[in-house]
């Protein structure tokens, strides 16, 4: 039975003079606060209620004017196992964190589990729950992100944007993925959603997080073991692409063994993605009158393997040690066929055929040791040590055939490029958390030491020998040292208010060299303040305002010289002149029951925009690279609302409306671009007889400005059906991009750039996926978990 209490005191008048206070905090087993949990103070003999309250938005509660004595404290929330504690209260007392575990109760062999909504708004983030999502089953994490509120995915450039802004950082279980975003996006496209519990979209991160990424943070939380004993999950699946006819097998296995103070985990997954892509590049040069059109068909084999081993050991009630060893192999092997047509002054000039064989093999190994300790005064200390190693092996071989119309001459050339990139990183992070009177104080520091070597080469076949092209052959080294400290204070601000204020200082010392000569450097110390205020107007409505300052540093792949051939006249290139972008943003959010409205304004200096095209008239070649935009202003309005139409039909609607103003000076001439855009998503869920669930989702994105280019409108419609076979297994069938509308088309039509350009990237449509998931071991909650104490709950792993 669902109980709702407002602040309720039931004390005799004589007890009001005791002035004893009892406070605490309630979280789930991942240390996420549980707002609106019922907290009851009962007599120990007959459970008569003495006082009652509900937790606030941060999971905290406070009871005042309690008379001295012994009590039972009962904490309850629908969907979680209740916790009852025996407490002697004779002075003001702050309890250790009370942890509630999600319920799964067996009644007559029918398992009834608490079901969370697909989208869940929390104090500082929007949570996408994947546990029971039908369309997500069997698909990748990138597919799920593409359907999430405010998230836009550009698969070709490997970029993510949140609420209309680029510069997103990605975390997995709270750990920042320290790779260029295009590489991280590639990893997410090879990560199955079967092992993911939820995705947190943090648009305004607090000072506890790195200041990197002016658009916000995406935190991917994997499934964790909470029950005693041994269990796990296995998934096998097969996909089929309608247009290309390629098959896409996938599978994963996760095994967990938990005792009272020890948890062992092991996982492995394989995603074999065989795919087709088409790139279409049209260019009209104004001087001279030159037109070219390039069509590239790409056929790739892409197996991604991931594995991990973890140990979590609760040494005693106050100390735990966790270790993790994980890695992946991401092997992209592709053949592409490129056909180009060149016209000069309206007449055919040349036809070019280009054949490319590419291998791009990323390997990664990481180790982590984490120490958590609770001090005698209730404070927490956490220490993390990480070592990460990456290696990228990326050779290409090109065979180019030129057919000149005027002379009927045919010329063939062979070119090969190579890139070897080893990366090593060491990270140490210390976090301290305590309470001072009614305030929560957090302090911490972090140091990251990165070393990178990038060996690039380009060779031409001359006769029967490969001759190096010294313009594109070089050994590069990058040193990147970053240090940060932060302080964060939070607490109550009046009877209905909560505040959080923080300051983070970050220093960056980055240097890139080639043969001992400095090519690029950054050395600065900057401050990044944050502020949040929440006012709980009523039990059903609240208002939040926030401010933060963030930075986006250039990714090394955007800076380091490299070359990717689109055709013999068009290259993807690095930009040594790229600067870090600084963003200031304010946001206001209003929540009424399940309705969420948000208004945000941000201003970026030196905003970094990918895939910007520039024509070099001397070389008669076009270079595509990341570039700075002098100033970018963004106004964004978001709305999210679920609706339970009937007992068997639910909808989730999300809308994002933006106005973007871009100011830039190019070749001494000011350029101003103004763009209104919208992004709408709708998710429909139908619960049918026979334990069958049907889900249909759609996303539409209107045109939007990206740097000095405009990305055309796009969308995607997907559907899925799930059949629950029994308590331990289920079958899912999904189809993505039913109408082949998930494509990226960029248009740059600005006379100052000297060209009109249209670039189109087409991905294969209608990918059908069938997956079977089975739960191994015992899935029922242990009876020992039905009643616990706060100190016992602290022995569980806190993420």
From TrEMBL:
Q: Which InterPro entries match?
A: CarboxyPept-like_regulatory, OMP_b-brl_3, Plug_dom_sf
Signal peptide interval: 1-18
> Which residue numbers delimit the Outer membrane protein beta-barrel domain?
377-773
Q: Which UniProt keywords apply?
A: Plasmid, Signal
Pfam short name (any one): CarbopepD_reg_2
Classify the source by domain of life: Bacteria
Alphabetized PANTHER family for the sequence = PLUG DOMAIN-CONTAINING PROTEIN, TONB-DEPENDENT RECEPTOR-LIKE BETA-BARREL DOMAIN-CONTAINING PROTEIN
- Name of the featured protein: Outer membrane protein beta-barrel domain-containing protein
Q: What organism, scientifically named, is this protein from?
A: Runella rosea
